[in-house]
Design goal:
Elements lengths: L21 E4 L2 E13 L3 H8 L11 E4 L2 E11 L6 E4 L2 E11 L17 E12 L4 E3 L4 H7 L3 E13 L3 E5 L7 E21 L7 E22 L17 E22 L6 E13 L7 E4 L1 E10 L7 E3 L5 E3 L14
Parallel strand pairs: 1-3, 2-4, 3-5, 4-6, 6-7, 7-9, 8-10, 9-11, 10-11, 11-12, 12-13, 13-14, 13-15, 14-16, 16-17
Antiparallel strand pairs: 17-18
């Protein structure tokens, strides 16, 4: 199969990717459903060959739908995908509901659950995902290829999910987000037994933007790092990317965040090149396992905290009371307090 247009390069090798078990393109009004029956990708063979470097092309997703609209995927179990499990690419009006996605939590490389890629008008709800990479990863193209294709992911609602990811994150945006990602709402999410809960990742060379992102009613249970924003995820398809293509990160809010057994509740790692702007925290109380400092970590971030939150926020953020009256202005948004030792 030809490579995806947004990448112009296979994710793992130059050129084409292997076909998917279920593949469709230029479809309209299609339903995949089935009394919670299982589609088994039997990915073990693929993972082994990938580790042994025996594959000449990028592995294919288990289910891949491209350039399509009015798609419903519901009441099925998808397991052991060779690569990403469910990949809607450049699609519009997609509903994914009551889907269970499973893969081993270790040694099942790149088995993301759902990867909305340059998609518009999408709902993902009432799903259980436990996989060997990101539970959900919203994407829109990789460096210069994504910038050229220019198709954002926008208007995506994710709600009522239980997710586990011991290798990556429960819900990620990026790192391939060069076409832009905006107007994403994540609500009623439980992330348990995971390395990270929610993450935004990007790098110089990506271009594009991540903005108007709303997280609401998040619960973290035994998670190493809760909220992550990372701007130095330097993985590039080739040397042809523009190092001056800097992404914009702004208008990101976190409301009603709770949990227990979390080591680092927040790590927002902006940079001088890519500051993180207009971040809001409200109603946050996360039980922590690491009692020293470095538990609410910030660098090059500007925003606000409304009301009382626990643990105490970093000094980069303005403080407001519950009535949204300014209490204390931040002395500097550029204070850097990032600790990757844990």
């Amino acid at each position: 199969m030809p490579p995806l247009p947004s990448y112009g390069y296979g994710r793992e090798h130059p050129g084409p990717r292997y076909g998917s078990l279920i593949h469709g393109q230029n479809l309209k009004d299609v339903v995949i459903t089935g009394h919670n029956g299982t589609i088994n990708g039997q990915g073990q063979t693929w993972w082994k060959k990938y580790r042994q470097k025996l594959l000449n092309n990028t592995r294919g997703p288990l289910v891949q739908i491209m350039w399509s609209s009015d798609i419903v995927i519901t009441n099925i179990t998808l397991r052991d995908s060779p690569f990403w499990t469910l990949h809607p690419y450049d699609c519009k009006n997609v509903t994914i509901r009551n889907v269970t996605i499973l893969a081993p939590i270790f040694e099942a490389p790149n088995t993301d659950g759902i990867d909305p890629d340059s998609c518009e008008d999408m709902v993902i709800e009432d799903c259980y995902i436990s996989v060997g990479d990101d539970g959900i990863a919203i994407k829109s193209g990789w460096d210069q290829y994504g910038i050229a294709y220019g198709r954002p992911s926008t208007n995506i609602l994710i709600r009522n999910l239980v997710v586990r990811s011991m290798v990556s994150a429960g819900i990620s945006i990026g790192s391939e987000m060069s076409g832009g990602v905006s107007h994403v709402t994540v609500e009623n999410l439980l992330v348990w037994g995971s390395r990270r809960a929610v993450r935004i990742k990007t790098a110089p060379g990506r271009g594009g933007y991540v903005k108007h992102i709303t997280y609401r009613n998040l619960t973290f249970d035994n998670v190493r790092v809760g909220i992550v924003i990372k701007t130095d995820y330097n993985e590039h398809p080739d040397e042809g990317y523009d190092r001056k293509a800097l992404p914009v990160l702004e208008d990101i809010s976190f409301t009603s965040v709770h949990g227990q057994g979390v080591r680092v509740p927040v790590r927002i790692h902006g940079s001088e090149e890519i500051p993180v702007r207009n971040v809001t925290f409200r109603d946050m109380s996360v039980g922590i396992t690491y009692k020293k400092k470095h538990i609410f970590q910030c660098a090059f971030v500007e925003g606000r905290v409304i009301g009382t939150i626990f643990p105490a926020p970093c000094e980069n953020l303005d403080r407001y009371d519950e009535q949204e009256q300014l209490v204390k202005r931040s002395s500097s948004q550029n204070i850097t307090d990032i600790d990757y030792d844990f």
